[in-house]
């Protein structure tokens, strides 16, 4: 039992050190939050979509409201079987183009859109997001000033349950915090900026045989090629996503995300994913073993405190500290939730009427 306790303490110490580094990175400023609008470079916005009729009108309207005007939008239709195209045809805007995908899957659709782009600067987002009117302007300015090969834009969650919101606070914290200490391990395709020429260099490393992961494999490829990765915190560039409407859809989404992990090859990404999963297992076991020694409870409390520091930092930034009232319950459920996700990744996942291998 003593040897097991030593292993648990070692794991949670590594985890705590990593999370505290992300807390430091979250609070570290990168001077890209407030920049002047002095450039009007042409931009292509690439959006892969499948069966997004419910979200398409709002998306197109928000794109038409952008303060930045010098852009084209390539909507790559990934074999939708709803009335998305007829809705698109109601919007008369020469900058918007509807393109039917030649291959299957979001990653292939993104690739097709990037290669068809008429500009070198590319922005990507999703069809079911809420875009501020200053999104394009802010991302283009930040991309220019950062001189990054891959710019990770801010993505925040709205209309979510307390569990989803707190879970996403941790994702936000890790995304920005890790990038700001020079070791990015997460990003979201809902808000990225890069150049067409850089994407073409990354193509051999994007694992096109894996149907998902257009964002994470681009991050991996950029790190492999020693490209500069920058993440920004900027309200004017923040894309908002909605929480999953049901528990089943939330579990399915997180299972899809976790299912990509076996395909990662970058050490820091693999290390972080493995450490997080292992720590959840250790904490779940510690709760069961604390009757044998109070030190097992200490293992859980260390994780509880360091996670609270990261989540509270993000919640404070979004003026949502009231959500932290639910944090103790989430912390108790989280190890079991992660174990469930790990088990479910062993089975095929479904997404929009497709089975993902």
Describe it.
Helix 1 runs parallel beside helix 11 (294-317). The model has no long low-confidence stretch (mean pLDDT 91). The strands form three sheets. A seven-stranded mixed sheet has the order 3-2-1-4-8-6-9, sandwiched between helices. A three-stranded mixed sheet has the order 5-10-7. It has twelve helices and twelve strands. It folds into two domains: 2-25 and 263-356, no CATH class; 32-257, Spore Coat Polysaccharide Biosynthesis Protein SpsA, Chain A, CATH 3.90.550. A hairpin with a 2-residue loop joins strand 11 and strand 12. By secondary structure, the protein is of the alpha/beta class. 50% of the residues lie in helices and 14% in strands.
Terminal CA distance reads: 40 Å
What is the H-and-E element order?
HEHEHEHEEHEEHEHHEEHHHHEE
State the CATH topology of the largest domain.
Spore Coat Polysaccharide Biosynthesis Protein SpsA, Chain A
Q: What is the second-level CATH architecture of the largest domain?
A: Alpha-Beta Complex
Question: Which SSEs are present, and which pair or pack?
Answer:
Layout (H helix, E strand, L loop, with lengths): L1 H26 L15 E7 L6 H9 L6 E7 L6 H5 L7 E5 L5 H11 L4 E4 L4 E2 L4 H12 L3 E3 L2 E4 L3 H19 L11 E4 H7 L11 H11 L4 E3 L7 E4 L4 H13 L7 H23 L4 H24 L9 H18 L4 E3 L2 E3 L1
Parallel strand pairs: 1-2, 1-4, 2-3, 6-9, 7-10
Antiparallel strand pairs: 4-8, 5-10, 6-8, 11-12
Helix pairs in contact: 1-6, 1-10, 1-11, 6-11, 10-11, 10-12
């Amino acid at each position: 039992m003593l040897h097991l306790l030593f292993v648990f303490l070692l794991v949670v110490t590594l985890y705590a050190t990593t999370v505290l580094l992300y807390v430091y990175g979250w609070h570290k400023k990168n001077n890209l939050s407030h920049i002047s609008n002095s450039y009007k470079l042409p931009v292509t916005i690439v959006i892969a979509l499948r069966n997004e009729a419910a979200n398409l009108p709002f998306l197109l309207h928000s794109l038409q409201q952008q303060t930045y005007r010098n852009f084209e939008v390539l909507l790559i239709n990934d074999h939708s079987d709803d009335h998305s195209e007829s809705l698109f045809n109601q919007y008369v805007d020469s900058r918007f183009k509807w393109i039917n995908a030649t291959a299957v899957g979001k990653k292939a659709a993104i690739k097709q859109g990037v290669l068809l782009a008429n500009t070198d600067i590319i922005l990507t987002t999703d069809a079911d997001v809420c875009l501020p009117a200053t999104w394009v302007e802010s991302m283009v300015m930040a991309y220019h000033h950062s001189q990054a090969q891959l710019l990770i834009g801010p993505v925040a969650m709205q209309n979510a349950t307390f569990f989803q919101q707190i879970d996403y606070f941790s994702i936000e914290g890790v995304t920005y915090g890790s990038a700001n200490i020079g070791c990015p391990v997460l990003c979201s395709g809902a808000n990225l900026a890069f150049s067409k020429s850089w994407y073409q260099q990354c193509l051999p490393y994007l694992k096109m045989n894996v149907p998902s992961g257009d964002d994470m494999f681009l991050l991996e490829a950029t790190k492999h090629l020693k490209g500069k990765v920058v993440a920004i915190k900027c309200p004017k560039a923040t894309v908002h996503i909605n929480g999953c409407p049901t528990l089943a859809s939330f579990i399915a989404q997180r299972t899809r995300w976790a299912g990509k992990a076996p395909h990662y090859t970058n050490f820091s990404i693999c290390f972080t994913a493995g450490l997080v999963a292992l720590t959840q297992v250790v904490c779940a076991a510690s709760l069961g073993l604390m009757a044998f020694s109070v030190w097992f409870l200490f293992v859980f409390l260390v994780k509880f405190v360091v996670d609270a520091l990261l989540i509270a930092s993000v919640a404070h930034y979004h003026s949502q500290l009231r959500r932290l009232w639910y944090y103790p319950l989430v912390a108790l459920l989280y190890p079991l939730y992660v174990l469930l996700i790990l088990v479910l990744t062993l089975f095929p996942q479904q997404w929009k009427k497709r089975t993902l291998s």
